[in-house]
Amino acid sequence: MDSLTQIALGASIGVAVMGRRTAAWKAALWGGVAGLLPDLDVLLDHGDPVLNMVLHRAETHALFWLAWASGPLAWLVARIGGEPGLWRRWWLAIALALMTHPVLDWFTIYGTQLFLPFIDEALGLGSLFIIDPLYSLPLMAGVVWALRGSNRGWRANTWGLAWSSAYIVWSVVAQQHVLGHAQASLRSAGLSSAQVFVTPAPFNTVLWRVVAVDGDQLHEGFYSLMDGGRAVRFDAFERGNALMAAQADHPQLQRLLRFADGFVSLRQAANGDMVVSDWRMGQYPNFVFSFNIGPPLAPGQTPPVATQERGTMDVAAGLTWVWRRLWGEDIDPPR
Most buried among 84, 145, 174, 299, by the most CB within 10 A? Predict the structure, then answer.
């Protein structure tokens, strides 16, 4: 999720765990700091944008390492705050604020390596968009109210946490409903439903984007819970299997294929360079992560440093489409 939401979640957990044992502002401050810390890995530059992508949400998002880090951080917080006797309580608060960060990220589609150093697979359920006001705003409101110090403020903070947790459950239930409907739509259209993902369109859990792999094509469609059960209509796009096979040993391509669970396309631009796109984020032809990885490699060649391609979507037009499509209008997405 976005960093502001992670700060709000950490602050809310800090307030809930510390209760009246310390000042609400202290609990919110240190909980928010702990909630933000895992995302500081974005400041690391690995020398290549593909590496920067696949190595984000790695060690700093691993539950094992965060659990180990929580004790020393809690001891430091207790010392700074002049509350050494509350060290164990701070440990619980800091541990939860740290570890709920990657767990929340797991509900987005990006990919979070939760189980390093034991398993290096990037996990992403994809039931939440990276920014969702219905998740974030109740958390923020609860924290702000708690900072006022009243009994109602403490209860509001608890209700904010409860709402956000219930909203996550709702997102998973809605996703599974849409997934089943999408798979049925694919089979009805004579397409494979073996490799498919469903993830929300921006800022909501009513309109969902569906992408399926079928041979040399990727199929993209959208389904709103307001569609009344009508079949998902898919558009087909070339995946570039022949070029992928010819470049099977290309290290940047292989990294992205593994990181994105195969939901990747490869095309050759007019100048001969190859462009690889991660289909999990954005929509055709404007993906959040597309990289120019240079011309096709001969055996033994070293690839150049990749450059990230930027989309050209009209944001205002895209948001207008999301709003109209969310309410069930059967209109084509902007391309």
Answer: 145
